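R.M. (postdoc): so does anyone remember the format we settled on? I'll just put the structure tokens first.
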């Protein structure tokens, strides 16, 4: 779970249960901690359809946490959005360009405790139909909420990839679950460190938006001689190290932060 680029929770879910298992328990603990620090903060949960469970929605309603979550397609949702999709198809036939139409629906799955508001996106293009559905507690224009709020979730996917690919959080080959969870926590700690270097140390530089893999390989993964005595540890870098000035400025920025 991320807030912008900052990691809040990194949890390894056992694979023999529901994909959203423990998600709302973690959300509850996180909400309590955030509100203890910032009592008036507004919290909005944004996630894909893998986390859309009615118990989580009910908890969010009771706890005053807003949400905007992907909703998996099913025959009933598609029936509710059929007229909208027909309009998009007709407009595509006339204009020969991709058409997107948005509308609000009231929907409740058979297991839900009540109806909730759903954004329906009817899209039709040369590739055919592409309907999408999002359940939310937020008010406003359906298209703006979808494009500007929900679709921004893609940036969070990039942060997950940074931790998985750049910092190897997916290397969970131990037989014991706790050992693998510890590996994930080590990767999470590394991400927090790298994000701090990027946000504080590299601010205002050409690397301010660099991926953590780039920072690790080009700034940190370098040869050095370490000399240690009773009072200090010194690092001696090669005179050919191309990022000497940048490395020094990062250290200075982190020291003064």
């Amino acid at each position: 779970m991320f807030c912008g680029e900052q990691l809040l929770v990194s949890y390894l879910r056992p694979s023999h249960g529901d994909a959203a298992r423990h998600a709302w328990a973690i959300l509850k603990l996180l909400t309590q901690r955030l509100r203890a620090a910032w009592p008036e903060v507004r919290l909005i949960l944004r996630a894909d359809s893998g986390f859309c469970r009615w118990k989580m929605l009910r908890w969010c309603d009771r706890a005053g946490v807003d949400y905007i979550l992907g909703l998996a397609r099913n025959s009933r949702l598609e029936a509710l959005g059929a007229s909208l999709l027909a309009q998009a198809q007709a407009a595509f036939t006339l204009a020969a360009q991709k058409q997107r139409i948005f509308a609000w629906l009231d929907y409740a799955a058979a297991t839900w405790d009540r109806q909730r508001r759903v954004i329906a996106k009817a899209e039709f293009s040369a590739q055919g139909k592409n309907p999408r559905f999002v359940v939310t507690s937020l008010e406003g224009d359906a298209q703006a909420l979808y494009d500007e709020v929900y679709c921004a979730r893609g940036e969070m996917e990039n942060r997950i990839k940074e931790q998985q690919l750049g910092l190897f959080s997916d290397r969970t080959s131990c037989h014991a679950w706790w050992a693998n969870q510890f590996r994930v926590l080590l990767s999470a700690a590394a991400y927090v460190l790298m994000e701090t270097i990027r946000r504080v140390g590299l601010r205002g530089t050409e690397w301010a938006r660099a991926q953590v893999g780039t920072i690790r390989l080009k700034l940190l993964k370098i040869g050095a001689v370490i000399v240690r005595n009773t009072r200090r540890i010194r690092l001696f870098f090669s005179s050919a190290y191309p990022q000497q000035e940048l490395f020094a400025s990062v250290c200075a920025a982190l020291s003064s932060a």
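R.M.: ...and that's the designed sequence above, right after the tokens. Also worth knowing: The CA atoms of residues 19 and 72 lie 14 Å apart. The radius of gyration is 23 Å.
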